[in-house]
Design a protein that fits this description.
Blueprint lengths: L5 H7 L2 H22 L3 H8 L3 H29 L1 H21 L3 H29 L3 H33 L3 H4 L1 H15 L13 H20 L5 H25 L13 H30 L5 H7 L1 H10 L3 H8 L1 H25 L2 H28 L6 H29 L3 H26 L3
Helix pairs in contact: 2-6, 2-7, 2-9, 4-5, 4-6, 4-10, 4-18, 5-6, 5-9, 6-18, 7-14, 7-15, 7-17, 10-11, 12-16, 12-17, 12-18, 12-19, 14-17, 15-16, 15-17, 16-17, 16-19, 17-18, 18-19
Length: 455
Amino acid sequence: MDRPSKTSQARARQPHAALATLCLAVITAQLDTSVVNLALDPIGKDLDATVSQLQWVVDAYNLVYAVLLLTGGLLADLAGRRRILISGALVFGIASIGCAIAPTAPVLIAARALTGVGAALLLPASLSIIRVIYPDQQARQRALGIWAGCNGLALAIGPTLGGLLIHAFGWRSVFYVVVPFSLVGAVSARATIEESADPAGRSFDITGQVLAILSLAAVTLAAIESPHSTISLTAAFGVTGFVLFGLFLAVEHRQGQAALVPLTMFRSRSFAGAMAGTTAMTFGMYGTLFLFPLATQSLGRLDATSTGLALLPMALSFVLVSPFSDAVVQRFGQRMTIALGLGTIGIGNGILSVAFLLDLFMMSEIGLLLTGIGMGLATGPLTAVAVSAVGSNRGGTAGALINVARMVGATIGVAALGAIFAAVAGAENGFFAAMIVGALVQVMGAAVALSTIGR
């Protein structure tokens, strides 16, 4: 057996340096996502883009990212987690340059789709590496709390940074700014992370890959296009997605442990509960982030800049609470911490609904603050349960699946709560109804966590 080199031994003894690299990776991906919405108006004017094209500047990333997550997770386990992380960072950086120099809207949309490829490689690999470098569950829980906090950090600084860049240098600068982060992340990963892979007894499972991509694409398209398409077309996308998903399950069952997603993973009640809890959490979180600015500005209560500042309590509390979620877990356990987090989001959504209806600004801020606190409590433990419920050889797949749950919850949340908002007469009443539904989903998620996740 080959003895590990001094370099690899040094890397193994410095997991915190590796964690810093992984946090940089997640900040890179989420920073891009959080700033692009601010650039849509100047992009439309500069490139003479239609409303539909501007929507696809956002959705091309979301769609490609969602459908390739499982592929990215499998490649991390098979080909090497560090290798796939570095590849994702480089693809992300190159695609961001493509976005920045795009001469037309179609070129920009294509570059955004390539950015989704980079993110689909980057994020599952980062979670898988945390599973490997922190074999101790308590240390892993702490690391995942920090990793989750970086999502909130990007959410907090993204809009402010994006606004300053657009004002000073134009919309192309919001894509250029991501490039140094990507390059530094790739170089740092080479220096701080030891390579690991678990290809034994597994294959690329091409049939499973194709069915997973097509089914996720159909369901995601149904959610993306539902506000703009006929009911029959949306239903056709949805039904096609579920039929393909049924075929995917049949193929994966036949493949057994060599499958893209071994169905035995879901025999773990904790893993299944973490998936359900994550879907519920992002349903309410992204629904709130989508509807609050829309409703506030449509009523003329705040302008765009003030709305961004109003959302800061939600983002900052997410950042500040996430690293300390491990301390709450040590006191109350994962199950209770997750239920407490989801319940707090539900309370925040409920307060926000009433405050918005009565036009009470400070009460709305309290609701947003509680929503952020709940996200900070729940995100790290939910991720920890998912990646800890399987062996390290399935770390990439578990990391991919928990991100699929995040994307599914976010996409359905925006579509469903947006539809409720549009269907109820009056922006105040529509927002109230949508946030009540969001709160109920959080309560159901908390109940699922209490009944499925182990003590």
